[in-house]
Specification:
213 residues, mainly beta, eight-stranded antiparallel beta sheet, two-stranded antiparallel ribbon, 10 strands, 37% strand, globular
């Protein structure tokens, strides 16, 4: 194969649409791809067995971080480490919700739906209960799906996209709610991803094409 400097079609620029499921996901519960539509359209279909919430505008994109933890073996005859072995793994996903709704704050705080009541259109308003919780409360996990631009030639008839899926995600970092004169109110959130029970997988990343009907 002759030398090539690279392939510009493999450079990805652009943000992803972020969806949060009302429950955890598994490989079997995730909606299959449809060859004639974007996965964003598939996720918003009323035929889904799982309900997905589109968080709307985000800031600073989507950041998926893999943090392996390696142990070291040192021996007398080598000044450096003689062998490394993998002893742990952490995967996290970070973004910022630019739409400062109470629905998005509920997701950022990993709170159950029962903590949000009422509607903004009434005199009593919409209320988010900021409860500390009770002893024995379990952490609330949800699934995450993000759909953004993928690799491929944009000049072809097919449209490319990349789909990021996290089966179990838990918000564990500090979430700040602010009202500032010179900045938009937004919720910076970091999700810790956990492996799914049956497969041991955190999720998957899929590059796909679809031909709009």
């Amino acid at each position: 194969m002759p030398y090539s400097r690279g392939t510009s079609n493999n450079i990805i620029v652009g943000a992803a649409a972020l969806f949060i499921a009302d429950t955890t996901l598994t490989p079997s519960t995730l909606k299959p791809f449809v060859g004639t539509e974007s996965f964003k359209t598939t996720l918003t279909s009323t035929l889904n067995a799982v309900d997905y919430t589109n968080v709307g505008y985000t800031m600073n994109g989507l950041e998926l971080q893999f943090q392996p933890d390696f142990g070291e073996v040192q021996v007398d005859q080598v000044l450096d480490v003689a062998k490394l072995y993998k002893q742990g793994m952490q995967v996290s996903l970070a973004t910022a919700f630019a739409e400062a709704t109470l629905e998005n704050l509920l997701l950022a705080l990993a709170s159950p739906e029962s903590k949000l009541s009422g509607t903004k259109s009434t005199s009593a308003g919409q209320v988010l209960d900021m409860s500390a919780g009770d002893i024995g409360d379990v952490a609330l996990e949800r699934g995450i799906v993000a759909v953004g631009p993928g690799t491929g030639n944009p000049a072809t008839a097919a449209v490319t996209e990349r789909v990021y899926t996290a089966y179990r995600a838990l918000s564990i970092e500090n979430v700040t709610v602010a009202a500032k004169r010179d900045e938009a109110s937004m919720f910076e959130v970091s999700f810790r991803l956990l492996p799914e029970d049956s497969s041991g997988s955190y999720g998957k990343i899929v590059d796909r094409t679809f031909a709009p009907a």
